[in-house]
Specification:
Strands 1-2 form a two-stranded antiparallel ribbon. By secondary structure, the protein is an all-alpha fold. Helix 4 packs parallel to helix 6. It has helices at about 1-30, 40-75, 75-105, 115-140, 140-170, 175-210; strands at about 210-215, 215-220.
């Protein structure tokens, strides 16, 4: 029985890695839309929507596996926390897929004029956060999870920088206000993805310790004592 449980747990980890990879692809492809002309951008947007659908499917698949593990294996202590954490994490990963789709829809309306480098660097950082948080969960690496949480400050600084640059650009060229708003929304979606990656890392903490750090405080989730 224990060997079967171990195999199912390994399958859960494998699927989490696949889901995290799909999210990373969706973000990267959505931001790449910034570099393409309209026709190519539309193709990229369609591919992001396909990835989003695959992410939704995997979310349901992992939820089903976790539910079976909880009902049939009745895990306790650390194993219970890991499965509970996975159930919470897939929700954040699914939302990351949704936000990548939103970015793709906006990005094809933004002119490629060499002024979107900050967005691309911000995207690279949030992709790293998503990758590292999922990796921390699979490897049960508490230090890596906490590094992801700390790195959210870097993404927040990118957002503040982009917002200030947009305000300055709008003061110089108010006729491009609608496009600047689209750029701002892309940055905001990336900032929200950073928040979701932070949530992922906080659930890794919970899986390991029975508590999560939230706004600098350590808290035990309601009804989920260690």
């Amino acid at each position: 029985m224990r060997e079967r449980f171990k195999q199912q747990l390994e399958e859960m980890y494998r699927q989490m890695v696949v889901l995290g990879g799909l999210c990373q692809q969706a973000i990267a492809m959505a931001v790449k839309t910034l570099d393409e002309q309209e026709e190519a951008a539309q193709r990229l947007e369609a591919q992001v929507h396909i990835l989003d659908g695959e992410i939704d499917d995997m979310e349901r698949e992992i939820e089903g596996l976790c539910t079976k593990l909880l009902l049939k294996q009745q895990p306790v202590a650390t194993d219970l926390r890991r499965i509970t954490a996975a159930l919470k994490m897939v929700t954040d990963l699914e939302r990351i897929g949704d936000q990548a789709s939103d970015i793709a829809e906006l990005a094809r309306f933004i002119r490629h004029n060499g002024k979107n480098e900050a967005l691309k660097k911000m995207a690279a950082d949030v992709i790293r956060m998503v990758s590292d948080s999922v990796d921390a969960f699979v490897r049960l690496d508490l230090d890596q999870a906490r590094a992801v949480i700390a790195y959210d400050d870097v993404v927040d600084r990118w957002f503040d920088q982009i917002k200030k640059e947009l305000i300055a650009r709008m003061a110089q060229d108010s006729s491009a206000g609608e496009e600047f708003l689209d750029v701002f929304l892309v940055a905001k979606y990336l900032e929200r993805i950073g928040d979701h990656a932070t949530n992922l890392a906080e659930w890794v903490e919970y899986a390991q310790t029975g508590a999560r750090s939230k706004n600098g405080l350590w808290v035990a989730p309601a009804g989920m004592g260690g």
